[in-house]
Amino acid sequence: MAKGIEGRCFQAQVLNRESVLVRIRKFSNGDERACRRVIESNCEAVAQQCGKAVADDLMECNSLRRLREKSRESFFVVAADGPRVIGMSRLEPNGVVGNVYVLHSKQRRGIGSAIIHRPENEAKQQGLNAIGAGVLSNAQNFYEKHGFRKSGKNVVRAGNKTIAIAKMTKCIAREGVQKTATAFFKSHDRRIRALVDLPKERKCFPVLVLCHGFLGHPKQKLLAIVAKRFCQAGFAVIRFFFTNANAEKPGKNVPPVHWHEQELRDALAFARNLQGADAKRVFLAGHSYGANVCLLVARDDPHIKALVLFAPGRELKEYAHLFENGVMKLFGKALVVTNRARRDWLEADLDYAVHKSRRKTFVVAANPDDFVPLPSLQKRFAGFETRVLKGTDHFFNGSEEKAAAEALLFLEKKVCAKKSK
């Protein structure tokens, strides 16, 4: 059996079907061309059942550049017959399974069943209760065979043709495992969607409000694992969607920072009013941009007991170079920068927020971090209690459990006094 992908223990699954030996491994640099050939081999069947326009659209959405981006944005595995890639699948941060393809000449040998299980197993490790998929008619039977059920449909246009895409879901929650509930709270006259994890002990529990990064997602692996570990430790955990700055609905314009500050304040009010919550033990945690929003809110709220910052983003004014020509290009998106948003980003006083939060803040840093170099972060947070996790990136890929454990240890040791017997 092969050893782990990118330093983690990840057993390779070997199939022996008609002399085909297949190993499931994580996508590596250079696999994009082979993956594109795998998709291309399926285009004839797609064209026959759904039309040539759909097949052309499929190839356009899976260009070499987009495949490389997908490998960075999601959990992406390939099936390899020796050095040759013959299959692929991935799990998006929002729990959607996609790009499940097997080379046409290698189909009906059990390879598809093997690779669709990898995203499912990853979703279980992330603490997700369900996974979804958007499926063309030619693949619907395959997904139903593997436990997915149709839950709706989307209609899209490909060329001059209207195509129905089945929305399919699969429940993967185990009995006895705490399920994540969806809730809503109000902020600036709109409903904000939140994910709520409640502990088994429903009396006088502490609450953690957890913020995603810019164009991130509350279900991304780091946040999902943090929520799971804290919930197991007796915390309620609230994750919510920043308006126009989440991966699910990114919006067309760069949102002003004060929008998200207000949303976080309203999320805190929602947290303090949870039935059974200890309003005196409410904590904040955020990743990247979300960490900066936490700092800005904690600056003016003395009732926040402590903060945990996962790879906190740079000073917001340092992103001015991304505002050139009135467009912000980030993570493959191009957002329009309004004058209001530009002013908000450039004038946010994070220096003062950092100074005010020194005594109650814990920083978890990654090294190497391509977005926030470690020397810059250490200079900005000099004097703060900090842990540096080596061999991981800005998103803590492969080190999510370590990051969650360090954060939990800080809050339990420094702030959460043990209940008196």
Question: Would you give an account of this structure?
Answer:
The chain is α/β, with parallel strands linked by helices and 421 residues long. The chain folds into two domains: 5-171, Aminopeptidase (3-Layer(aba) Sandwich), CATH 3.40.630; 181-415, Alpha/Beta hydrolase fold, catalytic domain (Rossmann fold), CATH 3.40.50. It has 13 helices and 18 strands. It has helices at 32-41, 43-50, 52-61, 64-73, 111-125, 140-145, 221-232, 257-272, 289-299, 339-347, 350-356, 374-380, 400-415; strands spanning 15-17, 20-26, 75-81, 84-91, 97-102, 130-135, 149-158, 161-171, 181-187, 190-197, 205-211, 236-240, 277-287, 307-310, 327-330, 333-336, 361-367, 385-390. The chain has an eight-stranded mixed β-sheet, sandwiched between helices. α1 crosses α4 and α9 packs across α11 (350-356). The protein is globular and about 65 Å long. 40% of the residues are buried. Mean pLDDT is 85; it is low at 1-19.
What is the CATH T-level topology of the largest domain?
Rossmann fold
Beta-strand residue percentage: 25-35%
CATH H level of the largest domain: which superfamily? Alpha/Beta hydrolase fold, catalytic domain
- The helix content, as a percent range, equals 25-40%
- Rg from Cα: 22 Å
**CATH architecture descriptor text of the largest domain:** 3-Layer(aba) Sandwich
Secondary-structure class? alpha/beta
Report the end-to-end length measured between terminal Cα atoms. 49 Å
Number of helices in the DSSP assignment: 13
Task: State the major sheet.
Answer: 8 strands, mixed
